[in-house]
Automatic annotation (TrEMBL):
<keyword id="KW-0627">Porphyrin biosynthesis</keyword>
<dbReference type="InterPro" id="IPR001731">
    <property type="entry name" value="ALAD"/>
</dbReference>
<dbReference type="Pfam" id="PF00490">
    <property type="entry name" value="ALAD"/>
</dbReference>
<dbReference type="InterPro" id="IPR030656">
    <property type="entry name" value="ALAD_AS"/>
</dbReference>
<comment type="function">
    <text>Catalyzes an early step in the biosynthesis of tetrapyrroles. Binds two molecules of 5-aminolevulinate per subunit, each at a distinct site, and catalyzes their condensation to form porphobilinogen.</text>
</comment>
<comment type="similarity">
    <text>Belongs to the ALAD family.</text>
</comment>
<dbReference type="GO" id="GO:0004655">
    <property type="term" value="F:porphobilinogen synthase activity"/>
</dbReference>
<dbReference type="InterPro" id="IPR013785">
    <property type="entry name" value="Aldolase_TIM"/>
</dbReference>
<keyword id="KW-0350">Heme biosynthesis</keyword>
<comment type="subunit">
    <text>Homooctamer.</text>
</comment>
<keyword id="KW-0456">Lyase</keyword>
<comment type="pathway">
    <text>Porphyrin-containing compound metabolism; protoporphyrin-IX biosynthesis; coproporphyrinogen-III from 5-aminolevulinate: step 1/4.</text>
</comment>
<protein>
    <recommendedName>
        <fullName>Delta-aminolevulinic acid dehydratase</fullName>
        <ecNumber>4.2.1.24</ecNumber>
    </recommendedName>
</protein>
């Protein structure tokens, strides 16, 4: 054996200290964005049945949740609204006193330094559950753009720091950028859901946001999960139209896409660790089949390794606590 020549990679794995020294990918609290679901009414802290640990919050109870997020050092939240009334164009999405607008004002009044991102879409607010105006059973792309721009402006007027449009209409970034600029908000960034697949992983979110389509599906505007090059075309369009961040959604089944979009664009990339990915882990953990902490930290690290700069995840609060324990 003395003449056998081979490399001893294990030398760099021998102790916890050495492993930490050579670790290539790091997960930090500042990498995380925490989603919040806000609802009308009072004394509402209702757990989403398909998402253990995720709640609907009424505004009178919201402050305590946001205080906890800030205390943990999570730098950003994204606000999703569940209105008490809906119509065919989702008018409560752009109403000055819509649930999202009210929540943003309240959050920024209490925590002006917290970065507040507004999800900009119509599906939670329309009575048909689609992300745009419907005519003849079809989603009308161009008529929807005006409403999205109007929604974005109303959210920024309420205090949103970043607009995150998630509708996947063609030209939505251009329309929102034009609307924001025209309203004087030229410095507000757009975090575009640039690459959003028509995925089976969204089921629990639709339960949380009450946003399931009443007919058909969203395959005419969300992407085919089989397509990789299309993701690059979508990202390129949003870059040209004025996006500042690019979201890839979902994350776990699309790590290859995250890497390609990062290498192609050079833009800050956000991985959306979606509801189905969250709920699968929670269900397996509750059955004692997996170690939740180790699984979550491993999968979020894989997203960072694939090229994500930020991760939008329902696990965010637990992740910060686990990172603190590891330190």
């Amino acid at each position: 054996m003395k003449d056998l020549q081979f490399r001893r990679h294990r030398r760099l794995r021998g102790t916890a200290g050495i492993r930490k020294m050579v670790r290539e990918t790091h997960l930090h609290p500042e990498d995380l964005i925490y989603p919040l679901f806000v609802v009308e009414g009072t004394n509402m802290k209702n757990e989403v049945p398909s998402m253990p640990g995720v709640f609907h919050w009424s505004l009178d109870l919201l402050d305590a949740e946001v205080d906890e997020v800030v205390a943990l050092g999570i730098p950003a939240i994204i606000v999703f609204g569940v209105p008490d009334s809906k119509d065919d164009i989702g008018s409560s999405a752009f109403h000055d006193h819509g649930i999202v607008q009210k929540a943003i004002r309240q959050i920024k009044a209490n925590h002006p330094d917290l970065t507040v991102i507004a999800d900009t879409c119509l599906c939670q607010f329309t009575d048909h559950g689609h992300c745009g105006v419907i005519e003849g059973g079809k989603v009308l792309n161009d008529r929807t753009l005006n409403l999205l721009a109007k929604t974005a402006v109303s959210q920024v007027e309420a205090g949103a720091d970043i607009i995150a449009p998630s509708n996947m209409m063609d030209g939505f970034v251009a329309a929102i950028r034009h609307g924001l600029d025209e309203a004087g908000f030229i410095d507000v960034p757009i975090m575009s859901y640039a690459v959003k697949f028509s995925s089976a992983f969204y089921g629990p979110f639709r339960d949380a946001a009450h946003s399931s389509p009443k007919f058909g599906d969203r395959k005419t505007y969300q992407m085919d999960p089989a397509n990789r090059l299309e993701a690059l075309r979508e990202a390129e369009s949003d870059m040209e139209e004025g996006a500042d961040f690019l979201i890839v959604k979902p994350a776990l089944s699309y790590l290859d896409v995250i890497r390609e979009v990062k290498d192609f664009s050079g833009f800050p990339i956000v991985a959306y660790n979606v509801s189905g990915e969250y709920s699968m882990v929670k269900a397996a953990s509750q059955n004692g089949w997996i170690n939740e902490k180790e699984i979550v930290l491993e999968k979020l690290t894989s997203m960072k390794r694939a090229g994500a700069d930020l991760i939008l995840t329902y696990h965010a609060k637990d992740v910060v606590r686990w990172l603190q324990e590891n330190e």
